[in-house]
Amino acid sequence: MSKQSEIPGVAAVIAVASGKGGVGKSTTALNLALGLRDLGLRVGLLDADIYGPSVPRLTGIHEKPALDDNRKMIPIQRFGLSIMSIGFLVEEDTAMIWRGPMVMSAITQMLRDVAWGTLDILVVDMPPGTGDAQLTLTQLVSLSGAVTVTTPQEVALHDVRKGMMMFQKVNVPLLGIVENMSFFLCGHCGERTEIFSHGGGERAAEKLGIPFLGRVPIDPAIRAGGDTGNPIVVAKPDSPQAQAFREIAAKLAAALQTGEAGAAKSRIASLLDKIKRPATGN
Ligand code: ADP
User: In sequence order, which residues have a C-beta less than 8 Å from that of residue 104 and are 6 or more positions away?
Assistant: First the structure.
């Protein structure tokens, strides 16, 4: 197993993970990166979702990165972020059929052969789930913490625990849970509809003893921003949706600064201890 290492010039690396695909992990990673940018931080975004890189679509970037004098790839600059994606190098569908060793070498290149420059935070959009690609990533780079994105219904929440255990195994502190597609606010009548039930993310966070970072509504403007390469924090910076992402970003930054990462780590250790014990009663 390779040893974890720091990325030169990058102060903190945060993984944005999810138990399963389609919960809005990439959308959240991008908009959180933008929220961190709005705090005045120098932020990079690495799309490591090797099996289905969606950052090219979400950002509208369709160019190949140039190489510097050391033959390292120069991340693309967009929205004030330094952005790199495997999708800049291969067609979106190509990586889906890669086998283990190719996936590992692609992930290694994304981490080692990119000239990130000086960054306060590198946000890594992880592949969904808990397979080899995810583990490779956590072993290659020293992560300051991980954020898990989920939707509120039970079937999604079940996978949150699995994802958490993976990070625990490799000693990555869990910074918290983001509940995406939390509710729908009708643009016509203003009524709030909880499509995927209410408060699942918050309950899961409480049960698991990790911070709940906040809710993002399910909203056509967020989807439209994703389809047109115009993320909501850029397209409608004053909207409540953008505000939701910025608040979560602020909580994240605070957690990193105040050593919440260390505290979260020990809370997870005691939780896993509980999970391992046989259930008693009720
Ligand atoms: P994942 O990375 O988990 O597979 P994506 O971020 O690619 O998910 O999002 C999947 C789809 O859902 C995209 O079309 C995206 O625009 C849309 N989406 C994500 N979050 C929201 C939201 N809060 N409201 C509406 N659509 C969303």
Answer: 132, 133, 136
275 or 228, greater pLDDT:
228
User: What is the spatial distance between Cα 231 and Cα 218, in angstroms, rounded to a whole number?
Assistant: 14
Q: State if residue 178 touches ligand 1 by the CB under 6 angstroms criterion.
A: no
Pairing mode, strands 184-185 and 76-78: unpaired
Q: Is the CB of 240 under 6 A from ligand 1?
A: no
Instruction: Tell me the two tokens of residue 94.
Output: 């190509």
Ligand 1 atom with the shortest distance to the CA of 217: 23
Going from the Cα of 207 to the center of ligand 1, the distance in angstroms, rounded, reads: 26
**What DSSP assignment string belongs to 205-234?**
HHHHT--EEEE----HHHHHHHHTT--HHH
pLDDT tops 70 at residue 44: yes
Check pocket membership of 14 for ligand 1, CB cut-off 6 A: no
Tell me the best of 18, 27, 177, 233 to mutate to test the pocket of ligand 1, counting ligand atoms within 8 Å of each CB and taking the most: 27
**What number of helices (H) and strands (E) belong to the chain?**
10, 10
| CA–CA distance, 143 with 64 (Å, rounded to integer) | 27
- Alpha carbon distances (Å) from 6 to 9, 11, 85, 144: 9, 8, 19, 10
pTM equals: 0.89
